[in-house]
């Protein structure tokens, strides 16, 4: 059974904003996606493009979740980046990110449980 979910640009923007408020997308890009990123200015990070492997050409904004490559000119949001990387549908990608957010929250609570001051 093939699923096809299409969101309007406005709804997709709201969804990405909500994801960015629950998940540190920079850490997500560094570890599960293995994209090496360095802080540039304010909320912007740069690294090698996961698509064209352009050196330090990939830019991601931590707050808006928008990504852009200055070499291949690919522009998308964090949700599209995760979808493309795994080849999942939108709903499968959202399920995966929800699981990731729950695991991060569980680990955070566990870390704070023993060390409360």
List its salient traits:
117 residues; alpha+beta; DNA Primase, Chain A; five-stranded antiparallel β-sheet; 5 strands
State the domain count.
Answer: 1
**CATH topology call:** DNA Primase, Chain A
Class by SSE composition: alpha+beta
- Total strand segments: 5
Shape: globular
Rounded to the nearest angstrom, the distance between the terminal CA atoms is 52 Å
The helix content is: 40-55%
Percentage of β-strand residues: 15-25%
Query: How confident is the prediction overall: mean pLDDT?
Result: 86
Instruction: Using the coordinates above, name the CATH class.
Output: Alpha Beta
Q: Indicate the radius of gyration in whole angstroms.
A: 15 Å
What is the topology, as strand order, of the major beta sheet?
1-2-3-4-5
CATH architecture type:
Alpha-Beta Complex
SSE arrangement, N to C: HHEEEEEHH
CATH superfamily: Zinc finger, CHC2-typedomain
Q: Identify low-pLDDT runs.
A: none
Number of helices: 4
User: Could you give a short account of the major beta sheet?
Assistant: 5 strands, antiparallel
């Amino acid at each position: 059974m093939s699923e096809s979910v299409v969101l309007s640009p406005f709804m997709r923007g709201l969804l990405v904003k909500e994801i960015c408020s629950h998940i540190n997308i920079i850490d997500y890009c560094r570890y599960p996606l293995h994209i090496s990123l360095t802080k540039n200015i304010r909320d912007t990070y740069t690294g090698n493009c996961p698509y064209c492997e352009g050196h330090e050409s990939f830019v991601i904004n931590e707050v808006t979740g928008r990504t852009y490559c200055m070499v291949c000119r690919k522009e998308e949001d964090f949700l599209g980046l995760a979808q493309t990387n795994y080849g999942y549908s939108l709903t499968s990608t959202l399920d995966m990110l929800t699981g990731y957010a729950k695991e991060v929250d569980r680990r955070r609570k566990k870390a704070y449980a023993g060390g409360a001051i």
